[in-house]
Amino acid sequence: MHVDIITLFPRFFDGVFLNSILKRAIDAGTLKVNIHNLRDFTTDRHHQADDYRFGGGAGMLLKPEPIFRAFEKAVAHVKPRPLVIYPTPQGIPFDQDCAEELSGQGHLIFICGHYKGVDQRVIERWVDREYSLGDYVLTGGEIAAAAMIDAAVRMIPGVLGDIDSARTDSFQHGMLDCPHYTRPEELEGLSVPGVIMSGHHRNIELWRNAAARFLTKKRRPDLL
Ligand code: ADE
Q1: What global pTM score does this model have?
Q2: Ligand 1 atom closest to the CA of 134, numbered from 1
Q3: How many CB atoms lie within 10 A of CB 153?
Q4: Cα–Cα nearest to 16, from 213, 221, 111, 153
Q5: Alpha-carbon distance 12 to 182, whole Å?
Q6: Helix 141-153, helix 96-103: angle, nearest 10
Q7: 103 within ligand 1 shell (Cβ under 6 A)
Q8: Residue 64 near ligand 1, beta carbon < 6 Å
Q9: Of all protein residues, whose CA lies closest to atom 10 belonging to ligand 1?
Q10: pLDDT in tens, the chain (224 residues)
Q11: What would the DSSP string read from start to end of 133-156?
């Protein structure tokens, strides 16, 4: 999968792709990331990428021209046209189904907004999907883009080894995941539920299902 990211803060992604599973995916050639610095697409001598909003009010907006130029560079010669995603609190909620759908795409472009976001004409011209990470406002789209890329890439077949398999994760069966335990069996008076240590696979499976259902009912009844 190719991922292009258009951002005013390219250094934000320094750590994101240098660790753990995303790094492994890059090293394996499964993931290719291109980060485009919006300032490189400004033409004034101050390299200004934001501006005041028409109509007044507090908060700046990312100017449309540098973003248009960045898109023209990132997608002009790419066929089929990549899917373009704009993370925004105004978007539809991003969930596991969205992550799985994105994981099947060959090429994604993320545009990271800042301040009040981007000029609406950027969305009209380029954006296919507007996704929100949740009902809160982040300082910028970078954090949301990183989360969406991570959620999508880990669902690409072969990216997760069996040891970190996604098969039993939360949301995979429409429920939250159950609690898990590892060694030691006893820690400062805290013990592992007996059934987990019983070696009886069927009972362990039943316990995990019941625990997942209990947790989901308590915390996320909307999922059931
Ligand atoms: N940018 C700022 N806040 C956001 C959110 N909640 N989801 C996606 N992008 C955002």
Answers
A1: 0.95
A2: 6
A3: 25
A4: 153
A5: 34
A6: 70
A7: no
A8: no
A9: 88
A10: 999 999 999 999 999 999 999 999 999 999 999 999 999 999 999 999 999 999 999 999 999 999 999 999 988 889 999 999 999 999 999 999 999 999 999 999 999 999 899 999 999 999 999 999 999 999 999 999 999 999 999 999 999 987 557 777 888 788 999 999 999 999 999 999 999 999 999 999 999 999 999 999 999 999 99
A11: SSSS--SBHHHHHHHHHHHHHTTS
Size of the chain, expressed as the number of residues it contains: 224
Rounded CA separation 25/17 (Å):
9
Tokens 């033409």 map to which residue? 43
Helices within 39-198 (DSSP H only): 64-75, 96-103, 120-126, 141-153
H or E segment and range at residue 5: strand 2-7
**CB-CB contact of 111 with 67 (8 Å):** yes
Token readout for 213 is 């259902």
DSSP 179-197: P---S-SEETTEE--GGGG
Q: Residue 94 corresponds to which tokens in the numbers above?
A: 């991003």
Q: Say yes or no: CB of residue 133 within 6 Å of ligand 1.
A: yes
User: Does any ligand 1 atom lie closer than 6 A to the CB of residue 66?
Assistant: no
**Which of 133, 142, 149 best tests ligand 1's pocket when mutated (most atoms within 8 Å of CB)?**
133
Q: Residue 127's closest CA among 116, 144, 113?
A: 113
Ligand 1 proximity of 152 Cβ (cutoff 6 Å): no
